[in-house]
Amino acid sequence: MTFRATILTLYPEMFPGPLGVSLAGRALGEGAWACETVQIRDFAADKHRTVDDTPAGGGAGMVLKVDVLARAIDHARTANPAAPVLAMTPRGKPLTQERVRELAAGPGVTILCGRFEGFDERIFAGREVEEVSIGDVILSGGEVAALVLLDACIRLIPGVMGAASSGVEESFENGLLEYPHYTRPNEWEGRTIPEVLRSGDHAKIAAWRQSQAEIDTRLRRPDLWERHCGARVQPASGARRKDEGK
Ligand code: SAH
């Protein structure tokens, strides 16, 4: 099955961009995923092909027009009906590896890229659109955010990455940051690779990696650590709740 990405944008020339090289580029060439763009401007109604207008209530910048967006979305939905429609916006739900994994297992995605001040809010009431943020930063447009989302999905498509296992141990896959990595030389500027990693004792190495992952997550990402600890106690209470319902 080909993962079909349809990108609604004012700058179609930005795709596949960096996803045309390396692993994603090879996968694109091999047909593991497809990249189609839709020019939002093609759905403007006037002879000037206007896609934006001044914000109601005043203020700086321009807002993407809801009627133009709706026509572009409706077109994309007809072209790729099985794919969920995602809109890139800092007001959206922060993207997670869990959501990326779900999307990568599906038929593809249609991605709406904003520009200027963003979208007329009514588009989210009028069309089924999932609002997605790639983090608490402001980009100049949704295209780079779409590339981030697509890159994360494409590397999970079966056959895209070399070793099938290399997607499984990554940071976030088990709710923790990954353990730190080292490679030769064994000594660099007086710093050596942790002794345990050279011991050849696989059980000891696995235990060290697990404890490093836990320590680093606790220190660097208290938010993830809290969720991880919560998730570990949850299955029991979840089971109890299920039993209570019987
Ligand atoms: N005025 C908006 C920001 C607009 S930035 C606000 O303050 O919320 C212009 C466009 O860039 C947005 O419409 C969106 O498509 C994209 N964008 C910017 N930051 C983003 C982020 N963190 N995640 C996803 N998309 C983003």
Outline of the structure:
The protein is α/β, with parallel strands linked by helices and 246 residues long. It has helices at 22-29, 66-79, 97-104, 123-126, 142-154, 202-220, 222-244, and strands at residues 3-9, 33-39, 52-53, 63-64, 85-94, 108-113, 130-133, 187-188, 191-192. It is 36% helix and 17% strand.
Detailed description of the structure:
With 246 residues, the protein is α/β, with parallel strands linked by helices. It has 2 domains: 3-154, 3-Layer(aba) Sandwich (Alpha/beta knot); 169-246, Orthogonal Bundle (Trp Operon Repressor, Chain A). It is 36% helix and 17% strand. It is built from 7 helices and 9 strands; from the N terminus they run E-H-E-E-E-H-E-H-E-H-E-H-E-E-H-H. It has helices spanning 22-29, 66-79, 97-104, 123-126, 142-154, 202-220, 222-244, and strands at residues 3-9, 33-39, 52-53, 63-64, 85-94, 108-113, 130-133, 187-188, 191-192. It has a 5-stranded parallel beta sheet, with helices on both faces. The chain has a two-stranded antiparallel ribbon with strand order 3-4. Strand 1, helix 1 and strand 2 form a beta-alpha-beta unit. Helix 3 packs across helix 5 and helix 6 crosses helix 7 (222-244). Mean pLDDT is 94; it is low at 238-246. S-adenosyl-L-homocysteine (SAH) binds at residues 88-91, 113-115, 117-118, 133-135, 137-139, 141-142, 145.
